[in-house]
Design a protein that fits this description.
alpha+beta; 8 strands; Structural Genomics Hypothetical 15.5 Kd Protein In mrcA-pckA Intergenic Region, Chain A; globular; 6 helices
Length: 204
């Protein structure tokens, strides 16, 4: 990794939830929106079971699919990089995951800085509160889930514990799990860069 690499510090916040559920990450500006989707999945963490889209600068970025796009112009999320959005002056945009539960996120590029040559990116920085479980039923379902989980005498307490597979601790974001997942992405990226560099050297 060279010190000339540029990094975007990004904050991702789930909309319409109080207290706030948010994550701060540092990602190379060469990361595509598809790559950012993978990073968000890793740090929330979600399980990447569902479709997603970004809305940035009035355009929709996703995995184009004629069956689902219904005439909307959709650009491939893998073809646009964070740096290109920043260059166009776009530092706030939106991300939606799971069109059933409809988890909407606000994304803000807080700063663009030089990379630390000693760090493998992307990197999880900090955040607060555990993200909703997959398929919990959107905002209202999550509220009901939290209520039942928090009250042992609640009629659905046993049911939600069994469904989730244990206790759900809203204040515990699961740092170890997040770091394990983000480190795997960073390692793949580093190995990919090493492989690319070797292939270039072999051509000369």
């Amino acid at each position: 990794m060279t010190s000339s690499e540029r990094i975007a510090r990004i904050i991702v916040k789930l909309d319409h939830i109080d207290p706030a559920i948010w994550r701060r990450v540092e990602v190379p500006i060469t990361t595509s929106l598809k790559g950012l989707h993978d990073i968000i999945q890793a740090v929330m963490p979600f399980q990447d079971y569902h479709l997603f889209e970004f809305n940035a600068g009035g355009k929709r970025y996703a995995v184009p699919d004629p069956e689902w796009d219904f005439g909307r112009e959709t650009y491939a999320a893998r073809n646009v990089r964070i740096g290109a959005l920043v260059d166009r002056g776009i530092t706030t945009f939106n991300y939606t995951y799971d069109f059933g539960d409809d988890w909407r996120h606000s994304i803000t590029v807080e700063a663009v800085t030089d990379a630390d040559p000693a760090v493998e990116y992307p990197r999880f920085v900090d955040g607060e509160r555990r993200a909703p479980p997959e398929d919990v039923g959107g905002l209202s379902g999550f509220e009901e889930f939290l209520n039942a989980m928090a009250k042992p005498r609640h009629a659905q307490h046993r049911e939600v514990v069994a469904w989730y597979g244990g206790r759900f601790e809203p204040d515990n974001i699961g740092v170890d799990t997040i770091n394990d997942r983000i480190v795997k992405i960073a390692r793949r990226r580093t190995l990919g860069k090493v492989g690319y560099a070797k292939s270039q050297n072999n051509r000369h």
